[in-house]
Amino acid sequence: MAGVKAIADHFDIIAxxxxxxxxxxxxxxxxxxxxxxSWKDLGAVLPKGKKEWLKQIGLGIFAIASIFLITILVxxxxxxxxxxxxxxxxxxxxxxxxxxxxxxxxxIVIGIWLGAGLGEELLIRGFLLNHIKKVVGTGKASWLVALxxxxxxxxxxxxxxxxxxxxxxxxxxxxxxSFYLIAKRKLFPVVFAHAVFDTLTMVxxxxxxxGVS
Length: 213
Prior knowledge:
single chain; mainly alpha; 7 helices; 75% helix
């Protein structure tokens, strides 16, 4: 994943992260197939029935709320306490769609919904979390180790955002991993939460940086 993303970044390919993520998912799919495990077994299924849809969307909304709480905690407690810093050029990564609404929409579909939302949740919460747990062993302690490990990995995947970004995304990964387990290992709530929140973030960045009122 990291290698493919680095190559895509070298050639300035848009949504390089999405390319890297889905390359890793292809590899993960092959590994799962060898073990007779499907993505459905890891929670990649849509809700069934109105009640289940409402329940999982509700969990997704709570997951989104947790992101706002985490952001407030980091900004007003952890940042001043530990001197966390946001990378000055973090937003530059998304400058390609500023002032270009069609490009923004395409990026939201490909980079956010397919990449960050579906792709990252399949790979990190679906594949990585479950397989770290299997490596560690059985029992609740193994789930805790898996939760912490996948969160740390997810945080450092966002190192381009600076120390503050690493801490925020690590805590978000802990939250999403917890909601995944609360949902009885169903991915839809965290895919929904991830995609919706990132969409709101990108639209907010677009409006702020493009001077749209």
